[in-house]
Amino acid sequence: MPVTAHTLTPRAAALLLVPPLMWASNAIVGRLIHEMIPPMTLNLVRWILAGLLLLPFTYPMLRRSSPLWSHWKRYALLSLLGVGFYNSLQYLALQTSTPINVTLVASSNPVFMLGIGAIFFKQSIRKRQMLGALLSICGVLLVLSRGDVQALLQVQWVIGDVFVLMATASWSGYSWLLSQTTEPGEVRNDWANFLMAQIALGMVWSGLFTAGEWTLTDPHIVWGWPLAAALVFVAVGPAILAYRCWGLGVQQAGPNIAGFFANLTPLFAALLSVLALGELPAWYHLAAFGLIVSGIWVSSRQ
How far is residue 230's CA from residue 61's CA, in Å, rounded to a whole number? Predict the structure, then answer.
């Protein structure tokens, strides 16, 4: 399918900075509460809360006459990749994998973006994009290694890393689908309706995953204020706010360029961790920021 032309504007860049900040926060919160609630259940509850928050503004989308149902196949695929697979796999990965492994594997996002675009959407890969991907990944590796290359050689891989790889591929496919504008304007031009269309079918996928989790495992939930606060945060920030900004940013800048902004997630995660520990940023944080921004700039040049 043809994909519209894109340009990285200051507004698009500002929009694309919000999701990685929210995703970094989501990873930290998800790790903090991983013993309080099972991963699939966390994802389901998160989207139920997000759906309830949007419902007063979007309830017409759920009516039988809504264009959601005439385009249900597209929204079923979008919700499977973006609401079901991506978030469930990310929370599942945080059960067993360490932060350095999770962010290391997720740094392959630009590569997936370029590969999926070339294979399924007939997009050509330019040398500048390849160079931008290399610069961006180098920036991520610099943060992960804390300026010490030997630290990367000591990484041990676990099953969680595979889940992150699958989640990254899922998100890349989701982002490319976002760049297509095949649905009616009344849905696409209203961000709340567009997100609700995904949430409505996404809760079906998440519900199926959760049912399997409670059938095949021995899960438990530790209710309390810490879990309640965490659930509200992941429903408002990483769900509604991040998806809103990502959707707009991808439409304006394109999936290839947007993929490089996703690599800011581990950098933001490192900075948030530093702030939580009361430490000052190190030289490699600034150097990594420069490399990642350089990758975005190089890849977005015409």
Answer: 28
C-alpha count within 13 angstroms, C-beta hemisphere, residue 20: 26
How many angstroms separate the CA atoms of 231 and 46, rounded? 6
> CB neighbours (10 Å) of residue 59?
11
Distance CA 129, CA 260 (A): 10
Q: How far apart are CA 166 and CA 36, in angstroms?
A: 24
Q: What tens digit of pLDDT does each residue of 69-96 get?
A: 888 999 999 999 999 998 899 899 888 8
Q: Which two tokens stand for residue 253?
A: 């800048």
CB 22 within 8 A of CB 238: yes
pLDDT tens-digit map of 181-193? 777 777 777 888 8
Cβ-based burial of 219 (10 A; exposed 0-12, middle 13-18, buried ≥19): middle
DSSP 60: G
